[in-house]
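Quiz preparation item.
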């Protein structure tokens, strides 16, 4: 397996390859979600040239209480259903976290289904207990943060993502 950073968005063909025929690969079709922001770069995993996992990254501003600051937003995290349960998630996330640490912000933030929160918790993410909104829509899924700098602590208060979610 090869892990590569793409300094660009995924093409439609690459997304189709990742989804491998799944109609709702993120399992969010039944939820009312805010619009999704396009990612600036992706960490991808290929197996024999075939795209099997991807983690999207971008730097975006958030507001917590009266403070505004940038975070590295993780989004579009997916392992093709044909490769789940084989350690590919960690293989994609660890280099994505290393890339996030180089981008500058003190925090990484992501949104996930509750059933996936334990996977992210094993990588140091913690649940944000305050209400979170993105583009004016209350997030119907878990919101999680992780320090990217030693001793960084997530501030208390409601979280607002001024634009689309990650």
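Solution:
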């Amino acid at each position: 397996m090869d892990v590569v950073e793409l300094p660009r968005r995924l093409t439609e063909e690459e997304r189709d390859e990742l989804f491998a025929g799944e109609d709702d690969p993120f399992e969010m079709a039944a939820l009312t979600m805010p619009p999704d922001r396009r990612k600036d770069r992706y960490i991808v995993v290929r197996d024999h040239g075939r795209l099997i996992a991807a983690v999207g990254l971008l730097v975006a501003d958030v507001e917590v209480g009266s403070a505004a600051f940038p975070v590295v937003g993780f989004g579009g995290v997916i392992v093709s259903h044909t490769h789940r349960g084989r350690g590919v998630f960690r293989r994609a996330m660890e280099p994505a976290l290393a890339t996030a640490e180089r981008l500058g912000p003190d925090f990484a933030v992501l949104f996930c289904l509750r059933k996936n929160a334990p996977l992210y918790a094993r990588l140091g993410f913690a649940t944000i207990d305050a209400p979170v909104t993105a583009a004016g829509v209350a997030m119907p899924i878990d919101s999680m943060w992780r320090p990217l700098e030693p001793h960084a602590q997530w501030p208390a208060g409601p979280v607002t993502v001024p634009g689309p979610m990650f």
